[in-house]
From TrEMBL:
This is UDP-2,3-diacylglucosamine diphosphatase. GO terms for molecular function: metal ion binding; UDP-2,3-diacylglucosamine hydrolase activity. InterPro entries: Calcineurin-like_PHP (IPR004843), LpxH-like (IPR043461), Metallo-depent_PP-like (IPR029052). Gene3D superfamilies: 3.60.21.10. The lineage of its organism: Bacteria, Pseudomonadati, Pseudomonadota, Betaproteobacteria, Neisseriales. It comes from Aquitalea palustris.
Length: 315
């Protein structure tokens, strides 16, 4: 089903990170990503791995027109001057054979570095290199991937029923991730390991994907950012003109009649400082309490127009 959207003007960011799109699977929300790419421009666009799901495509071919439209849209952005960097992940690891090459204006790199507007050096890496299961028990990773696919199928049917009853979208996989102790511990350990790697290599922070959990936070003085996924959370990480990073969401069709960006969790969770205390203690890359990044309804509605329509990468 296509998202029902209304027209809106484009928003411009200095940089956008997206990951874990999983083109080539039925779970990929390509229509929503295409909508996001049309109405959100940037000087830099980083594709942080698992953009195409080679694991699933090896089992059975699945490639809708909307998946092709996403690829064409990214290529079009590169032609218009956007600096596009593709850092392959484990699901699209075949692309790692082409590291160092440029295709259609898209630079393929094993990892990348980004310097924010306020001078912070960020390591950009998918993150599977620090997943012990992927590196040492790959057969178990394949089993887990198959189970995740089954959960998504069950979730789709369950949410169809919830929608008929007028209930909002609910994610079974996200629920399990947050309730199962081992999964929670894995996510926490993963984030700390990535932050530690950034510190070891003298970076100010790290941006990754892989675990499908969008986040931007400080871990012992190191900026940790994760761009989430386009299977369930429909999220991206963006850099504003002042160097501040923020997670933005594109609400799924099941949970709202129109796809809208939800208020950033980090913005919502920031508590203003006590009276008399300077707000400067808040890390620069986190949303500032005095001006939470809330989007108006006019900004959060978008129209899925003709995929062939060209939109400049930068305003």
């Amino acid at each position: 089903m296509q998202p029902d959207t209304a027209s809106t003007s484009s928003r411009h960011y200095r940089a956008i990170w997206i990951s874990d799109v999983h083109l080539g699977t039925s779970g990929c929300r390509a229509d929503h990503l295409l909508d996001f790419l049309k109405h959100n421009e940037s000087d830099y666009l980083y594709l942080v791995g698992d953009i195409v799901d080679g694991w699933q495509l090896k089992k059975s071919w699945y490639w809708k027109q909307s998946h092709n439209d996403v690829v064409q849209k990214v290529l079009r952005k590169a032609r218009k001057g956007c600096q596009v960097v593709y850092v392959p992940g484990n699901h699209d690891e075949a692309a790692r054979h082409y590291v160092g090459l440029d295709f259609g204006g898209i630079a393929i790199r094993r990892e990348a570095e980004h310097t924010t507007a306020d001078g912070k050096r960020l390591l950009i890496i998918h993150g599977d290199e620090f997943d012990g299961v992927i590196q040492h028990i790959k057969w178990l990773a394949y089993v887990g991937d198959s189970l995740y696919t089954v959960i998504l199928e069950l979730n789709r049917g369950f949410n169809w029923l919830r929608k008929q009853l007028g209930m909002p979208y609910w994610s079974l996989s996200q629920y399990l991730k947050h309730k199962v102790k081992n999964a929670v511990n894995f996510i926490s350990d993963f984030e700390k390991i990535l932050a530690g790697e950034a510190r070891r290599r003298a970076y100010d922070g790290v941006i990754c994907g892989h675990i499908h959990k969008a986040e931007v936070r400080d871990i012992d003085g190191i900026l940790y950012g994760n761009s989430g996924d386009w299977v369930e959370s429909l999220s991206a990480l963006v850099e504003h003109a002042d160097g501040r990073l923020e997670v933005v969401y594109w609400t799924e069709l099941q949970s709202a009649p129109e796809p809208t960006r939800r208020k950033n969790k980090q913005s919502a969770g920031v508590t203003p400082p006590p009276a008399g205390q300077a707000a400067a203690t808040q890390p620069a890359w986190l949303p500032q309490p005095a001006t939470p990044a809330m989007l108006t309804q006019a900004d959060t509605t978008a129209q899925l127009s003709d995929p062939t329509q060209e939109t400049p990468c930068a305003s």
